[in-house]
């Protein structure tokens, strides 16, 4: 068990990649605190997913709590960590995963779309990382922070001019936090998912031509699944990666390197 008796915090943990990270962590022996944002959790016209993820983790014999809040607000991260410590006594791992990607053209993008995306994806990652790192430092036993950046930190998207800079920022945040937090034994790394089939891009990939184009560009021949990313997050969070910090791991089926 790679995360035996560890306490793992996952932001955006009710759906998609975050849900997979929460489940994978529980399967590896962790207790899990899940952050979810009510507006986003219900944004896809489906019933809230948070009750089911808590039940699935408890069915694995691990403990779970769910804490609602928008990570864009600094107090959300502070409360999330406080509620986690109240429930489980400590924080060992943060998966800073929460993110949105409302695809939109650049020239007519309203400020609200840009500002909300930056606030959730980048400001949110900063605030939650800061809250978790302060708790880890106070505990005095190190810790691991894994942020969900993206292939989009490295390449662009015509409908993602608001989004890709936030993913580049998350990648850079982990690099700088690796330096700032290394003295406390806190490792900071990022995963860079490629095109993973989740709610985040369900609308975008409902276009069959777009989906076929993406699948054709991926050397492994398929879109990623959330657990493909979760397994890499578990690795970076575990002691197997004890000497890895400031790194980033592409989880993209070869998409990034595939020019021709
Ligand atoms: C990722 C990448 C994928 C897109 C998601 C929403 O960073 O750009 O292609 O589907 O974001």
Automatic annotation (TrEMBL):
Keywords: NADP, Oxidoreductase, Rhamnose metabolism. Its EC number is 1.1.1.378. It is an enzyme of class 1 (oxidoreductase). GO terms for molecular function: oxidoreductase activity, acting on the CH-OH group of donors, NAD or NADP as acceptor; quinone binding. It catalyses: L-rhamnofuranose + NAD(+) = L-rhamnono-1,4-lactone + NADH + H(+); L-rhamnofuranose + NADP(+) = L-rhamnono-1,4-lactone + NADPH + H(+). One of its GO terms (biological process) is rhamnose catabolic process. Pfam families: adh_short_C2. Pathway: Carbohydrate degradation; L-rhamnose degradation. Belongs to the short-chain dehydrogenases/reductases (SDR) family. This is L-rhamnose 1-dehydrogenase (NAD(P)(+)).
